[in-house]
Amino acid sequence: MTDFVHVTGMAGRVRLQLAPNTAAVLHHTLTDVAARLAGSDRRTGIPDHRLFPDAYDTREPSAAFRDRHGAAMRAEVAATFSRVLAAWDGGTELDLDLAGARDLRLALVHAQTVTLRPARWKASGTGMFAARWGAERTAVWLQDLESHLATAALARDDVPVFLEL
């Protein structure tokens, strides 16, 4: 069986056609991250400092930013996951308007937090995050799917976009 995602964009709509296994894995990943967002367990939850990378070059201002805005940002991310999962039952086809495409993009970006190691201080700008050992494929796949979704969402009305992953 071949795993694939066909992404088509035209006239303000984005359509994903997924292989059954691909749909199941993606739906499971999004469901798992949504549950982790609600969890407070240190081992299974996602703390704000992992969910929202540092906004500043030093720890103190970054922590203060998360203290001020973390709860509201977390609530928006959790609401986004809820909207995505409410609109998609894990089937092999997903038809989205631009708001739905934006929600799925945000979910895909935040789903990467479970595959990435925390940022290291004094790291170079290009090496701030690295995939955990064994999770590189998942991280890259989520990034590629998000990129394809963004490209399709930006399609002009008269020029359809067909992408495959």
Mean pLDDT across the residues is: 85
Count of helical regions: 5
The quaternary state of the protein chains shown equals: single chain
| Largest sheet data | 4 strands, antiparallel
Percent helix: 40-55%
SSE layout and pairing:
Layout: E1 5-10, E2 13-18, H1 20-38, H2 48-51, H3 59-87, E3 93-97, H4 98-111, H5 136-153, E4 161-164
Antiparallel strand pairs: 1-2, 1-4, 2-3
Can you walk me through this structure?
With 165 residues, the chain is an alpha+beta fold. Helices cover 51% and strands 13% of the residues. It is built from 5 helices and 4 strands; from the N terminus they run E-E-H-H-H-E-H-H-E. The chain has a 4-stranded antiparallel beta sheet. Helix 1 (20-38) packs across helix 3, helix 3 (59-87) packs across helix 4 (98-111) and helix 4 runs antiparallel to helix 5. The longest helix is centred in the middle third of the chain and has 29 residues, at 59-87. It is globular and about 50 Å long. 23% of the residues are buried. Residues 120-128 have low confidence and may be disordered.
